[in-house]
Structure formats: C-alpha cells, structure tokens
Amino acid sequence: MSERRVALVTGANRGLGYALAACLGRREFSVVVTARDARDANEAAASLRAHGVAEVEAHQLDVTDPASVFRAFTETQRSFGRLDVLISSAGIAIDRGRDASSSDMEKVRATLETNLLGAWRCAAEAIPLMRENDYGRIVHVSSGMGSLANMTSGSPAYRVSKAALNALTRVLADEVAQDNILVNSASPGVAATRMNYGGEAVSPEEAAEGMIWLATAPDDGPRGGFFQGRSVIPW
Ligand SMILES: NC(=O)c1ccc[n+]([C@@H]2O[C@H](COP(=O)([O-])OP(=O)(O)OC[C@H]3O[C@@H](n4cnc5c(N)ncnc54)[C@H](OP(=O)(O)O)[C@@H]3O)[C@@H](O)[C@H]2O)c1
Question: In what order do the strands lie in the sheet with 30-35?
C-alpha cells in the first residue's frame, strides 16, 4: 500500500478540478487526475508533473458512464492500494437563461446525470475503499446556486442538481458517520474558469482553498456541512 495519502479528483483536466489536483499534489498526496477524455487526463497529469507534483496517475473517468467510473476506481486501488480523498468537481451548466416552466428536459436530464448521479456514482465507488482504511474525505463541489435558502429562478436544472447534490452530501455524511469518512459540500464562489457565470471571479487556486481544507480535515473536522472558503453557508 502507498505510504502517501491518495486523492482522486473528477473533472481534473481544467478549471477548479485541475487547481484542486495541483494543490493536493503540492501537499504530498498521490493524485489521481481523471477526465472524461483519456488524452485530457494524460495532458493534465503531464502538466502537474512538469510543475513538480511527484506522484500523479491519469485515468479516463466519465461520471455519466458507470463502467468508466468503476474502472477508474478499481485501477486506483490496484495502483495504490488505498483511496483517502475524493473531490467531485466534474460538472456542467447547460441551461443558463432557461425557465423551469419551459425547460428542455433533455438538458435537465443531462445536468442531473452529471452533477448529481455522477458524484453519487463516484462516492459509491469510493466509500468501500475508504472503509478499508477507516479514513476518507469526500468533497462535493457544489454551488451557492444550489442553496435552497437563497433559491431564485434561472438555470433551473443546474440549481436543482446542486441542491440535490447537497442533499446527497447530508445523506452520505450520516451514513458513514461511524467510518471516519467526512462528506461535505463546498461552493467555490465565483471562480475564473470556463463555467464562470460572470461577476468578479477569484482564481481557481483561491477558490480551491476551502475545498483543500475540507479534503485534509482532521478526524474531528466538519461533516455534513456546506461551506464557502472555511465559512458555513446556508443550505
Ligand atoms: N467556476 C465557478 O464560478 C463555479 C461556481 C460554482 C460552482 N462551480 C462548480 O465547480 C465545478 C468545476 O467547474 P469549473 O468551474 O472548473 O468549470 P469548467 O472549467 O467548465 O470544468 C468543468 C469540468 O467538468 C468536467 N466534466 C463535465 N462533464 C463531465 C463528465 N461527464 N465526466 C467527467 N468530467 C466531466 C469537464 O470536462 P471536459 O473538459 O471534458 O468538458 C471539466 O473538466 C463544477 O461542479 C461547477 O458546477 C463552479
């Protein structure tokens, strides 16, 4: 079994996922960089190595494809013999400017498939591996747009997918409460990535800081919470 802790990041070829993988690599994690396109995963891993990350492995992982998810987690376990951290960053926002009352249901389905079921599938693969070592940290990259307390119209599929992802965080956090596995949701705020909805954005590295804090939390750290940076935000 690898001496280092092992972290798998989804959607790690660009944006927040890449920044998260880089931050974890600098903190002496072995990093499993995943992307839905194998070539993108390999390129991201090469870039991380070029920036001094010592131990990186790349895997194709499309969160909407159960076989691909299974393969990536199985290969991670085969390579390292452990999985300590999962950050589910893969996400899509494809219904900007839409109304819920006139939604394109294919876009709604695709959004839920990626943002909710994708993260769900990954958690279901990760938790048995984490249980083997009685240690795990799962961070769901959510959004303030998924906050029920502040819910408004616009981007309905995206909002609903992130609200549902937050519900999944609560369910899983309770389910693994006895296993030293901490599950939390994190909003990056507004980050300068391709997805950026507009407004003043921070760098992906800055936005990643709170998620890294959750991914490296001590055993008595937060569980079942919703954070932006290190602050609790309303569900
Ligand atoms: N940027 C913001 O201001 C902001 C705010 C709130 C929440 N977020 C959340 O932050 C997360 C990361 O987004 P980002 O800002 O980094 O945007 P991004 O640059 O658009 O990155 C999205 C990532 O998700 C990947 N992805 C999409 N569908 C996938 C699938 N089926 N399987 C695997 N990977 C898939 C993309 O891969 P491809 O390159 O193959 O498309 C890409 O790597 C998302 O969950 C998003 O909802 C971002």
Answer: 56-60, 30-35, 6-10, 85-88, 136-141, 181-187, 226-228, 231-232
69 within ligand 1 shell (Cβ under 6 A): no
Active site residue 135: no
Tokens of 44: 């991201």
Q: What is the CATH number of domain 6-232?
A: 3.40.50.720
41-89 per-position pLDDT tens digit: 999 999 999 999 989 999 999 999 999 999 999 999 999 999 999 999 9
- Summarised one tens digit per residue, pLDDT across range 21-32 is 999 999 989 999
Q: Where are the domains of the chain?
A: 6-232
Name the residue of 8, 9, 13, 16 whose CB sits within 8 Å of the most ligand 1 atoms, as the mutation to test its pocket: 16
